[in-house]
Design brief:
The protein is 17% helix and 26% strand. The chain is of the alpha+beta class and 504 residues long. It has a 6-stranded mixed sheet. A 4-stranded mixed sheet has the order 1-19-20-4. It has a 4-stranded antiparallel sheet with strand order 9-6-11-12. The protein starts with a helix and ends in a 5-residue tail after the last strand.
């Protein structure tokens, strides 16, 4: 009987419509219903931003016990510098030898404070619960931000090298095609930029220029930063004094493109180009990472060249000099070469002509070899292409699986460069903040006996990283992370720069 009833009940249930009362669910997983679902959220928060600080990570850090506003050292930079051929070492019987000349140089590196701040209110702390330690997340992000900013200063901070005055640009013969306005006596003005100036103008971190610029692009003369305590700090925007006017060149129908060059500026990583009929009306048209440009479009930016006359805005007194700046100083003895918009060239024997010229100069003039070459991703690609295209079979490596399945693995990478003059490998590294068109040679070891150098490059600190939790003035936690330091390069003759390298 009960089996019959059960079967009848099942049959009735099977015949009920799908949208009947029993098809409804009191509690579903839809958030629109009752929202009683668990929330599967991983904690803590994932940090999806790059913290690439290779120079900071490898430089020794040293705490100064001396105080002072700067660290100083003296160096003997030459012995028998007169190099007089009559000063031979041979002596006659009973006579004395000739007197040598010694060249000494004083070096100074001024300390600078670096730091940033951040805040979090009490409710944000409570809302994180035990899964999200929002205070820890905030301070971690703050420390990472300071390190990222510090890395850019270590590479290219500029506290003392004034880029100007610049020479006048030179406009070549107008080229066919292009869209410049047809007019007589076009003039071009140029402003040289530091790395900070380039990044302030382009608003990106890829180290490349803008050609042509967009309507909102401007070169910064000064920057006023509002600090967390309500005060403000004004610093220069990394732009030089504007150049004199170029020669005047007409644009005519069918010839509305102008090639322009300017003599290389040591310490500059980019150049801003203005075109018009006078300094007060010449507008920003392009930003390049070489000292040449091809102008073929009327500028759409409203910024005019006269903003940068007559003051220079290239130095930033709140920073210290980085490697690129130290290498650009003529007093440093560092190697400097501008390619003036030319390409790197293969030597046909697995080398790069311009790199080999630099390495030969290091050996011929200082008897040393750099240990590292730092480059932009653009140069990494071009160096790899030119070396591999040399076609030497010794560069080819075949990789197969154990089962010998037929397949090919594509792609190559030049990670080290062979110094033909000292017979040693040099690391070839991409730097995340290196501007395109530039290459930095860095020496970490001085091979001279009794050199008394120790670490060639280091960060010397009056106070290394420290964190401040400020007193409460409202219902929020306020943190600051700071360091007080300077980059010390005891042998700047071991630095070198190749600048204004074209992409190709």
């Amino acid at each position: 009987m009960f089996e019959d009833v059960t079967q009848q009940t099942i049959d009735l249930l099977n015949r009920m419509p799908a949208n009947g009362a029993l098809s409804k669910t009191t509690i579903s997983q839809s958030l629109a219903a009752n929202g009683l679902n668990a929330f599967d959220l991983r904690g803590p928060a994932v940090s999806l931003y790059p913290v690439l600080t290779p120079l900071r990570n490898t430089l020794p850090r040293e705490i100064s016990q001396q105080g002072d506003t700067a660290t100083r050292w003296k160096a003997i930079v030459g012995v028998n510098t007169a190099n007089n051929p009559i000063l031979t070492a041979g002596v006659q019987e009973g006579r004395r030898g000739g007197e040598i000349a010694v060249t000494e140089q004083d070096f100074i590196a001024t300390y600078a404070g670096l730091g940033l701040e951040a805040s979090i209110n009490w409710e944000a702390v409570w809302s994180g619960g035990k899964v999200f330690d929002n205070k820890a997340t905030l301070t971690k992000a703050l420390l990472n931000s300071v390190m990222i900013a510090e890395e850019a200063v270590l590479l290219a901070g500029n506290a003392s090298l004034v880029l100007g005055p610049l020479s006048a640009p030179v406009i070549g013969t107008a080229v066919a095609n292009g869209n410049l306005t047809v007019q007589t006596a076009n003039l071009v003005f140029c402003v040289a930029l530091t790395l900070e100036g380039l990044r302030l103008a382009t608003g990106n971190i890829n180290g490349q220029g803008l050609q042509p610029v967009v309507s909102t692009t401007t070169i910064k003369s000064t920057v006023s930063r509002t600090n967390i305590d309500g005060s403000s700090t004004v610093f220069n925007g990394g732009a030089s004094q504007v150049s004199p006017a170029s020669n005047a060149v007409d644009t005519t129908a069918g010839f509305r493109t102008l090639p322009v060059t300017i003599p290389a500026v040591r310490g500059a990583v980019a150049y801003a180009w203005f075109i018009g009929l006078a300094i007060g009306t010449a507008k920003l048209a392009a930003i390049t990472t070489t000292n040449s440009v091809v102008l073929n479009t009327d500028p759409i930016s409203t910024q005019v060249a006269s903003v940068f006359s007559p003051q220079d805005f290239s130095t930033n007194a709140t920073e210290f000099d980085g490697f690129l700046t130290l290498a650009a100083k003529t007093s440093s003895g560092a190697y400097f070469k501008s390619l003036d918009g030319a390409f790197l060239t293969s030597d046909g024997a697995n080398g790069i002509v311009e790199i080999d010229a630099a390495l030969q100069s290091f050996w011929d003039n200082a008897r040393l070899s750099p240990n590292e070459i730092w480059i932009h991703s653009q140069e990494a690609r071009n160096i790899n292409k030119k070396i591999i295209n040399a076609g030497t079979s010794s560069l080819v490596r075949f990789t197969t699986q154990q089962a010998n399945e037929p397949f090919i693995m594509g792609g190559t990478s030049v990670a080290k460069y062979w110094n033909k003059f000292t017979a040693q490998w040099i690391d070839l590294n991409i730097h995340p903040a290196m501007p395109a068109g530039m290459m930095l040679f860095k020496t970490n070891e001085i091979p001279y006996p009794m050199a008394e150098v120790g670490a060639v490059n280091l960060v010397r600190c009056r106070r290394d990283y420290y964190q401040i939790e400020w007193p409460f003035v409202s219902r929020q936690y306020v943190y600051g992370v700071y360091t007080d330091e300077v980059l010390v390069c005891r042998a700047p003759l071991g630095l070198g720069v190749i600048a204004n390298i074209a992409n190709g």
